[in-house]
Specification:
Number of strands: 0
Oligomer: single chain
Shape: elongated
Radius of gyration: 17 Å
Order of helices and strands: HHHHH
Mean pLDDT: 89
Number of domains: 2
Length: 88
């Protein structure tokens, strides 16, 4: 938000409102992908970046569908037997 605020695209009041709305979301921080060996293995196996592989490992560990618009990550998920969210 800082850049948008600095460039006049977002007022301070709008930024504060957005932060208040974000605080209301049921966001959960997960450490399920905090396994460098698993992330490295997934990245190597599917030719993904560590960033992409982290999302794949996270979806696998949580047993949830992966939502992505990244074609390589979606293909890796399919090959790994990880469900994709509808529309992904």
């Amino acid at each position: 938000m800082g850049a948008r605020e600095r460039h006049g695209r977002l007022s301070e009041a709008q930024a504060e409102r957005l932060i208040a709305l974000l605080d209301q979301l049921p966001i959960m921080v997960s450490h399920a992908a905090d396994d460098p060996a698993a992330v490295h293995a997934a990245a190597h196996r599917h030719r993904l970046s560590a960033y992409q592989a982290s999302y794949l490992v996270l979806a696998q560990r949580l047993g949830v569908p992966l939502a992505t618009t990244d074609a390589a990550l979606a293909q890796a998920a399919r090959l790994a037997g990880t469900r994709l969210a509808s529309g992904a």
